[in-house]
Write a structure and sequence with these properties.
about 0% strand; 8 helices; Transposase; single chain; mainly alpha
């Protein structure tokens, strides 16, 4: 059943689409949450960060459980979140390098000094 909610509606079979429609019709709260989640997914995929305050206001007005806290926490650093959902800049390569260094450090923890750690990082 959870696969219905995580897949794009066009990726569902006709039977699954009917089942999802039936479940959402029986639970208005779930239907509201489904709409908000799909709207947020559109904001993420289409880089529509400028529409984020409107989405947060809509979630705050309908108060779906689980999403309200998430939406209100986005307000803590709205400028950064909006920039992240709008700009093409990515820190993915840096995060990958940091993750690789941390992995090497964990592997050598307690077994080697800084010199060996430095060599392992430079060689890999």
């Amino acid at each position: 059943m959870t696969g219905w909610l995580t897949r794009h509606p066009t990726a569902l079979t006709e039977e699954d689409r009917a089942g999802l429609k039936d479940v959402l019709a029986r639970c208005p709260e779930l239907d509201t949450a489904d709409g908000h989640v799909r709207d947020f997914a559109e904001i993420l995929t289409d880089r529509l960060g400028s529409t984020l305050p409107t989405w947060i206001d809509a979630v705050d007005a309908s108060r779906p459980p689980g999403l309200t806290g998430f939406a209100l926490h986005l307000l803590r650093d709205l400028d950064a979140v909006t920039a992240g959902l709008t700009l093409d800049w990515s820190s993915g390569s840096i995060e990958g390098a940091v993750n690789r260094i941390k992995k090497i450090k964990r592997q050598l923890y307690g077994r080697a000094g800084f010199g060996l750690l430095r060599k392992m990082i430079l060689l890999q």
